[in-house]
Design brief:
This protein has about 130 residues and is an alpha/beta fold. It has one domain (about 5-125): Rossmann fold (3-Layer(aba) Sandwich), CATH 3.40.50.2300. It has helices at about 15-25, 40-50, 65-75, 90-95, 115-125; strands at about 5-10, 30-35, 50-55, 80-85, 105-110. β4, α4 (about 90-95) and β5 form a beta-alpha-beta unit. The mean pLDDT is about 85.
Length: about 130
């Protein structure tokens, strides 16, 4: 039996959250908790204790890189891999923003779902 990967998805676009949750869960391999509220994302991630956090970078309340940095500095969440999902910046720009911690990957919002799944698999594989 295949292990279900638990994911917290945080993006200020509720429609995108709903779509990605539906597409990922349809595979039967993922359980997704999605939130469009970046301000409450830290508490949500601590509560859910996911295998992976998918974060938009450009959000109105808390910037995705700032959230990832906070997660990396907290012993409760430091080991959670981060996948950035964005339509705005390159991996080089993420590093310039301070998101250059280990276990990071960036996927464009315009990428096919197969690319997102491949990135997830790469981050959560033993």
């Amino acid at each position: 039996m295949q292990k279900i990967t638990r994911i917290v998805l945080v993006d200020d676009d509720q429609d995108l959250c709903d779509l990605l949750k539906m597409e990922l869960e349809a595979s039967g391999r993922f359980q997704v908790t999605a939130s469009s509220q970046s301000g409450s994302a830290l508490a949500l991630i601590k509560t859910e204790r996911p295998d992976l956090a998918i974060l938009d970078i450009n959000m109105p309340e808390i910037h995705g890189v700032e959230l990832a940095t906070t997660l990396a500095q907290d012993p409760q969440t430091a080991g959670i891999p981060i996948l950035y999902l964005t339509g705005m910046v390159s991996p080089e720009e993420v590093n310039q923003l301070g998101g250059g911690h280990s276990l990071q990957t960036l996927v464009s919002k315009q990428s096919p779902i197969t690319e997102l799944v491949a990135a997830i698999d790469n981050l959560v594989s033993p």
